[in-house]
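Good morning,

Both structures are done.
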Amino acid sequence: MAELNKQVTPSNDDNVLLRVENLSQHFGELKAVDNVSFDIKKGEVFGLVGESGCGKTTTGRSIIKLYNITSGSIYFKGQRIGAGTLSYKNAIKDAKKKFKDEVAELKNSDDPDKAAVIAEKKAELGKLISDMRKQIASAKYDNSHVDKDLITQIQMIFQDPIASLDPRMTVREIISEGLVIKGMKDKKQIDEMVYDVLETVGLVREHAGRYPHEFSGGQRQRIGVARSVIMKPELIIADEPVSALDVSIQAQVINLLNDLRHDLGITILFVAHDLSVVKYFSDRIGVMYFGKLVELADSDELFKHPLHPYTRSLLSAIPLPDPDYEKNRKRITYVPLRDHDYSVEQPTFREVSPNHFVLCSDSEEEKYRSIIGG
């Protein structure tokens, strides 16, 4: 069980704002996110990258509680805001099956003390079931008693700047909706806050009375940023906020987020698949593949020493404005069955060098350490 056998994860110090432990998000048989662990420190930009469908957006949506997580725990400012129960239930199920098999084997054996051994194993099973049921009850309690004011300190910028804005609401209504939901009733104060945040994101107060269809894609994304910033969050989850925009507009939105990060002290989880953008913007980067986190390191370290084959394949796909380089650039393909042999050794997420984590087996870890050391 993931909760009982935790993998190596980044250190949990006082500077950590968000901590994700063994997060899994399943939709039926589909494991969209599978046992992912990482932390985000106050004031940093944490980039989460990977191909479409790898679980990046689902991870962000799980953190902000748009989904009830399947298993694992999510801590924000030291308080558990999300908890799943499947891993505890699976632990009970597995323990019962193991007990049944062991009892059947003992009953067919000649062990003179088999009755005492069975009684001892039954007691151990009872204790484990009791502990797991307490964990399930604790998880359910934490999910239902989360401080709503705490959750509003996490805001999200959505990927699609068109679909994420209600076309029947004015910009003023869209941006101020969170304030109204929190109970603010002073219309004059709300308007002043809306005007201030519009100017902060590079728009003007006259835009407040307009509707989303009257704006360009870049302006609509700025409205989405304003809607998040007006709540004075400590953490913003930016879900591919520039993927639907032109390159020149992408740079404007990224620079805007960078300015807000420094001016307001906001921490950002930046979800994207464009590694060149992520490198420019992020302090640390986590790489996801098929629901799993396969590598995590500082931005410079990841680009200098990419270890996991999937990370190397992603980096090889980054184009550069150099015709000679592009002519000779060799793409690296990633084929899990070819690049790994997990028939004997199973991979775990482990630290192969200081603050550089990779999903690997024992033999792969030895190889990766020699690459960095050599």
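Second structure follows.
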Amino acid sequence: MTYTEKNYSLLLEGLYARHPSVQDTGFGSGAYKPGLDGMLHFDEALGNPSRKFRSIHVAGTNGKGSVSSMLAAGLAGTGLRVGLYTSPHLTDFRERIKLVGPDGWSMIPKETVFRFLTGQELQGLSFFEITTGLAFQWFAAEQVDLAVIEVGLGGRLDSTNILTPELAVVTRIGLDHCALLGHTRAAIAGEKAGIFKPGVPALVGAYDEETAPVFEKRAADLPCPLFFAEDFDTEVFATDLTGPYQEANLRTALAAFELLGVAPDREVLAATAARTGLRGRWERLQAEPEVICDIGHNPPALEINFRRLRESGRPLVIVYGIMADKDLDAIRPMMPPEARYFLVAPRGDRSLPAAELAARMQGLDCTVCGSVEDGVRQALNAAEKIPGCILYIGGSNFVVAEAIGCFDKP
């Protein structure tokens, strides 16, 4: 098959159809394949690219994408060419795999994706194993100075865990994907600590009494040096990642730089989103009325977002949708009761239908919408009539992805 834009699009459609992703179909569809055997065999078939570049490995419930981007931006600001592998993507598959350099960022070329997908035996592999192999091979071919690799899910059994990095980082721990990772924060911490490697420094973003003993035991058993971000005297500052949790993420990144012996440029880190193309983290999509979107989707992240909205003291309009497997019972009490809600179901089988969502939102002012685009349109119409209003869009990566498309239209 020859590369054309049409053939590229058809190939991606086939990839999603034959190798469904957790992002689209959830964990019960066969898309999630825990364990490293498949990835190890795939890496070997590719010539072991995982061993051909230096790396930093980042896990965590919340903040790992932001911390990964901060690390990539800061390292690139010192003159390095840095690979950046994150997930999920919002509007373009290639957002997952980027090069970040002193002069900016770029996504993996479509032609490279096309050659990889047509040139490899992919039968039996998961979507995430395929994308991880693609990222590793491209980073090796590009001879990156360093790659920042974000864990997809958990850590211990994640496909990315075939790496032996120079530093392992774990960001904030919360309750999410409990059916797979455990129903306590300590159990989830155990899965995240699975990325620790013998002799490799490990950094944990926050010390707390429930999870710290888990990390300490894992580090002692290997053994490996263990640090907590609080161990470092770092000074935070404003960045273009403006979410309420970004101060903690920046502290983690700054501690990581100290462990790596790197002195990042403050101005470079302040422009992390611009320098890495990171989107959907308390991103301002429009100034008037002010429209904010954020991909936070589990109770710990949403609790922080909703608190910030309430503390603004401004009228609130919220476009909200959720996946059916999320803990709505935990999220519902956090939702600002004074807001006006436009409920949506993003495309995909995992979405909770908007009407079902409305039935569980008793006591709130809710409008059921036919699509994300319809919800955005109706919410904008409402917000334009309310002076000083904030329009917040969130609840799911998928809601944010479709909403960004509404504002990015030419």
